[in-house]
């Protein structure tokens, strides 16, 4: 039975306190010894609220939407910015993303204009639908399917684009120079290599790592080898606007570059320390890493470790500051929980969250022109 209800989150917050204990207990993060009575009462509270809503609420609502909202509010009650409940659709999309397969997306990342709240494109995925349609970093999204994009929440924008899978989506854009245009973008599934590279002037190799998801380590190492074989004598790694990815992909690249020593330190939920180390082989050539305020997680950790080893100079802007790793735990019904389960540190035991990210050796702010002055600064260092 389909019922109409527009205040799922309000009801969900009523359920969050009771269901949080139950959920974390199921996941093994809280002992149930001596708490049987409390847990039983919480379960009864949840059932009672659902029964009251079902029997007495005058409006209409969807049972599945109410469940999703309750679970989302439960995880949100943890207060952790990196933990979240994923619906079945969001979980399926995340699984594709970790394999660098994108469905129902157009291949952009965006931030918000502080004054207008309009989405501003930060990066465009090479080979994706947005790239094919000619979208560029710095373009402002004014409308999406005729709706004012400033009034649309980020998740709503993603959902609206995803709902157009197999069809076109219409965006009204303004470029940094103020010119307006309308773009029609076909929403489809696409695979994008996370690594691109080129040989630049003065025997400098440039490697762009878009994320640290599947195949990124293999492709990065292959790019390094190819550039060295063609005469590169120094390297630039560009992890600007890189959202992070898997720790094993990250460590494989660091192990290839760095001499023997600690690479990665993390604490499990019980306080146990685990240390990952690099092997004796290493690559000893000049290196510069490009970062910005949109470099997250594994990307900023990559730069931080190379900086601590004094193996590279860092150019750009301070990074975001993230020092928690998450696991995604499937749930009944097809959804999942992305939950912070480990706290991690650099090789010098620095918590990037507490320090507010890494500080570049050479802070260079990118202006609004088309010139990549951060890349130019990296090239100047290596020349």
Q: Biggest sheet, in brief? A: 6 strands, mixed
Taken from the alpha-carbon principal axes, the silhouette is globular
**What order do the helices and strands follow?**
HHHEHEEEHEEHEEEEEHEHEEEHEEEHEH
Structural category: alpha+beta
Describe the structure.
With 383 residues, the protein is an alpha+beta fold. The protein has 11 helices and 19 strands. It has helices at residues 8-26, 36-56, 63-76, 88-98, 129-132, 154-162, 216-229, 247-257, 298-308, 352-355, 373-382, and strands at 84-86, 101-105, 108-112, 119-124, 140-144, 147-148, 168-174, 180-186, 188-191, 195-200, 204-209, 234-238, 261-267, 273-278, 287-291, 313-316, 324-330, 336-345, 362-363. A 6-stranded mixed beta sheet has the order 10-11-12-15-16-19, sandwiched between helices. Strands 1, 13, 14, 17 and 18 form a 5-stranded antiparallel beta sheet that branches. The protein has a 4-stranded antiparallel beta sheet with strand order 6-5-7-8. The protein starts with 7 loop residues before the first helix and ends with a helix. The model is unreliable at 1-34 (pLDDT under 50).
């Amino acid at each position: 039975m389909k019922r109409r209800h527009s205040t799922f989150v309000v009801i969900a917050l009523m359920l969050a306190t009771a269901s949080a204990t139950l959920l974390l207990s199921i996941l093994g993060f809280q002992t149930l010894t001596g708490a049987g009575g409390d847990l039983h009462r919480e379960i009864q509270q949840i059932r009672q609220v659902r029964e009251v809503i079902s029997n007495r609420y005058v409006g209409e609502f969807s049972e599945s939407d109410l469940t999703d909202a309750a679970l989302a509010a439960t995880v949100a009650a943890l207060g952790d910015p990196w933990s979240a409940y994923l619906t079945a659709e969001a979980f399926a999309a995340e699984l594709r993303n970790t394999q660098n397969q994108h469905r129902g997306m157009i291949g952009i990342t965006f931030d918000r204009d502080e004054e207008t709240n309009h989405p501003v494109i930060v990066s465009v995925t090479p080979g994706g639908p947005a790239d094919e349609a000619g979208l560029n970093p710095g373009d402002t999204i004014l409308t999406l399917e005729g709706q004012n994009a400033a009034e649309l929440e980020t998740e709503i924008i993603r959902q609206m684009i995803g709902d157009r899978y197999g069809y076109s989506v219409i965006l009204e854009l303004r470029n940094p120079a103020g010119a307006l245009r309308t773009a029609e973008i076909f929403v489809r599934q696409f695979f994008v290599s996370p690594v691109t590279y080129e040989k630049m002037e003065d025997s400098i190799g440039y490697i762009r790592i878009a994320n640290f998801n599947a195949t990124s380590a293999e492709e990065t190492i292959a790019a390094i080898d190819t550039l060295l074989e063609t005469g590169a004598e120094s390297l630039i790694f560009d992890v600007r606007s890189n959202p992070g990815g898997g720790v094993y992909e990250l460590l494989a690249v660091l192990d290839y570059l760095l001499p023997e020593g600690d690479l990665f330190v993390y604490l499990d939920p019980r306080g146990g320390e685990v240390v990952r180390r690099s092997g004796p082989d290493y690559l000893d050539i000049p290196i510069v890493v490009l970062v910005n305020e949109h470099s997250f997680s594994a990307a900023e950790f990559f730069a931080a470790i190379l900086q601590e080893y004094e193996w590279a100079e860092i150019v750009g802007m301070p990074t975001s500051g993230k020092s928690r790793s998450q696991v995604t735990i499937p749930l009944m019904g097809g959804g999942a929980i992305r939950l912070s389960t480990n706290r991690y540190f650099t090789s010098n035991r620095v918590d990037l969250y507490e320090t507010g990210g890494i500080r570049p050796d050479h802070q260079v702010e990118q202006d609004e022109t088309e010139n990549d002055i951060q890349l130019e600064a990296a090239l100047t260092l290596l020349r």
